[in-house]
Amino acid sequence: MDEGLRSELSKQGVFTTTLEELYNWGRRSSVWPLNFGLACCAIEMIAASMARFDIARFGAEVFRPSPRQADLMIVAGTVTKKMAPQVVRLFNQMPEPKYVIAMGACAISGGPFKQGYNVLKGIDRYLPVDVHIPGCPPRPEALLHALMTLQQKIAAQRLTGPERPPHARDDAPAEFPVPQYGPYDLNPPHNPEVWQPAAVVRDEA
Amino acid sequence: MNGNDVGYGFVVLLMAAAAVFGLTPLALARLWARSFSPPKPSPGKQAAYECGLESKGDAWVQFNSAYYLYAIIFLIFDVETIFLLPFAVAFRGLSVGAFLAMMAFLLLLVEGLVWAWQKGVLTWH
Predict the structure, then answer these.
(1) Closest partner residue to A86 among B45, B47, B52, by Cβ?
(2) pLDDT tens digit string along B54-94?
(3) CB-closest option in B37, B44, B47 to A96
(4) Is the pLDDT of residue A182 over 80?
(5) In percent, how much of chain A has pLDDT > 70?
(6) With 80 as the cut, is the pLDDT of residue A103 above it?
(7) Which residues of B touch A89 (CB under 8 A)?
(8) Nearest CA in chain A to B40
(9) ipTM of the modeled complex
(10) What does the pLDDT average to over A103-117?
(11) How far is CA B3 from CA A105, B6, B9, in A?
């Protein structure tokens, strides 16, 4: 529908919508996170779900103990290399459509433990992260902001057409490869389909 | 036929309406899922275990419950005591037959103790 006509109609008190908007409104208003925490960020996540910050205002208070019932994975904390295969496998077991929030410095980059021998330097090496939250640990407000950002992202998703999200496409993979825990590093060290090391480009001038 | 007798036809009609009322949303949801949310089964998603770890081995395993050993030792050291105390109290008034019967009872239990001892149950692992 034309935006101008829509605006005119709304001024006259006629509310118009599309099936897509209605569907996305329902989805973004009931994002159920997976109930797991990895480190101190999980404490902030718990605080966000309690009365003071109350993530229930955004429809995301139903933390599910099973990946089968969850829509959102909040990677809250340091991902060790020993834990990374389990995190990826849990994400694989979540039904589509599913989203990932990388919460805190550790989950997005390894954080203060980046130089550690057994810390994964960001879960985005294996999973398609939708929202990154910086901070060590981020405040509960930051998690709420990330949730609102994710809701905007869900609201903008198309049902049809070439820009539709991976869960609606048949060619998108159903699973992300689970890394193997090896003696020195995870194998593979990253999933090249979702993450590539930043290329350093030097100007010769 | 008076006016109130309308038969059971409308009950069937209501049942049909109730079925349509229930089945239509289900059918719509199914249709919606087929077009906009195609199923994507995969080995990891189909796996029974959902705590992030891969399940190992077979679920049909046998557990060696060595509980009968505890039962035998309990019988020797606990139940025997219960009988030994009244036996000792009433010892002077007992007949020879009762004494022999008690000795046979003790022998049976001591036999069990010897058996358990030889089996190595009393050794702490």
Answers:
(1) B52
(2) 888 887 888 776 777 888 788 888 888 888 899 999 989 88
(3) B37
(4) yes
(5) 100
(6) yes
(7) 44, 52-54
(8) A174
(9) 0.70
(10) 92
(11) 79, 7, 15
Please give the residue of chain A at the shortest CA–CA distance from B33: A168
Q: What confidence score (pLDDT) does residue B2 get?
A: 57
Cross-chain CB nearest to A93 (options B36, B38, B50): B50
Hey, are the CB atoms on B53 and A86 less than 8 Å from each other?
yes
pLDDT at A203: 86
Q: DSSP assignment of chain A, as one string?
A: --HHHHHHHHHTT-----HHHHHHHHHHT-PPBB----STHHHHHHHHHSTTT-GGGGT----BSSGGG-SEEEEES--BTTTHHHHHHHHHHSPSS-EEEEEHHHHHH-GGGTT-TTB-S-GGGTS--SEEE-SSSPPHHHHHHHHHHHHHHHHT--SSSTT--GGG-SSS-SSPPPPEE-SSSEESSS-TTT--PPPP-----
**How many beta-carbon pairs below 8 A join chains A and B?**
43
Task: Please tell me whether residue B41 adopts helix, strand or coil conformation.
Answer: coil
Contact B50 A67 (CB under 8 A): yes
Whether the per-residue pLDDT at B1 is higher than 60: the answer is: no
The average pLDDT across A97-116 equals 92
d(CA A148, CA A165): 18
Q: Is A89–B38 a contact, with Cβ atoms under 8 angstroms apart?
A: no
Taking contacts as CB-CB distances below 8 angstroms, the residues of chain A near B54 are 89
State pLDDT tens for residues B90-110: 989 889 999 999 999 999 888
